[in-house]
Amino acid sequence: AERYLDERLRDTLGPAEGTVLEMKDVRGLGKTIDVILYRGELKKGDKITLVGPDGPFQTHIKGMFRPRGMSEMRDAGDRWDDVDYVQAAAGVKINGPELENVLAGTTLRLSNTDEQADEAHKKASDEARIGVEIEEEGVVIKADTLGGLEALAFELEKLSIPIRAATIGHVSKRDYITAENAGEPLHKVILAFSTKPIAEIANLLEEEGPVKFIDGSIIYHIIEPVSYTHLRAHETREDRGSRREV
Predict the structure, then answer these.
(1) Could you check whether the bond before residue 120 is cis, i.e. omega within 30 degrees of 0?
(2) Second label for 219, Cα 20 to 30 Å away, from 68, 87, 143, 203?
(3) From CA 80, how far away is CA 67, in angstroms rounded?
(4) Distance CA 129, CA 156 (A)
């Protein structure tokens, strides 16, 4: 963003917007979010609207930090400079209250005024609606970002594999119970894209239990085993049907 898109994306006339890359717990700073600011400008104390699992919420910027020197955001480590002001296009680390509730892959919006807050809340409400069709019976899917979740759902839809639950974040006990209670044995599956189970559930998934767990950082590596299983089951049903006819 800084190197190639500085002039192309700069728009200081409108309220600031940026994409939340991820939330991190940083020693000395607490909960922080890494953001690519692609529009407008931000300063310490600004009110911002973010997207959480339960919808939009508002907080404020306590501190802002830029990678020191020529460091990239992902490689900065503890090399950050405290700044009071940042302008698009730029990468920035932000800390403040309630940031642990942010969904990665969603949008940060400036909301200092009532008008900005109303507009930001409306857009964030639309963004919070996960565009995944849920069925009464199906597999459980998880991802670390909204975009990742919808991409995984898109690939499953092409294979006619139904989805019973689709949420963002770590695999939880609720996800395990949902998969365990599936009516079809083929649907006792949790598919996790770029996210991991919490410690309690990780131990359960390591055992030879009723729930199959497939995870990975490449969608097609997750899709392949489940699509193969569904294909084999379909062929078996057809074979049984042929024998009955004979």
Answers:
(1) no
(2) 203
(3) 5
(4) 19
CA dist 246 and 156 (Å) reads 34
| % of the chain with per-residue pLDDT over 90 | 52
Using the Cα atoms of residue 84, residue 10, residue 55 and residue 194 in order, give the sign of their dihedral. Answer: negative
164-197 pLDDT, tens digit per residue, is 999 888 899 999 999 999 999 889 999 999 999 9
Query: Residue 59 has which token pair?
Result: 């907080």
How does DSSP classify residue 103? P
The DSSP element (H or E) to which 91 belongs, if any, is strand 90-95
What 3-state DSSP class applies to 49?
strand
Whether residue 226 contacts residue 191, with contact meaning beta carbons closer than 8 Å, is answered with yes
Rounded to 10 degrees, what is the CA torsion of 71, 74, 80, 83?
100
> Residue 98: left if φ>0, alpha if ψ -120 to 50, beta else—which one?
left
Mean pLDDT of 93-110: 92
Q: Which two tokens stand for residue 116?
A: 């900005």
Specify the DSSP element, H or E, that contains 9: helix 6-9
d(CA 224, CA 219): 9
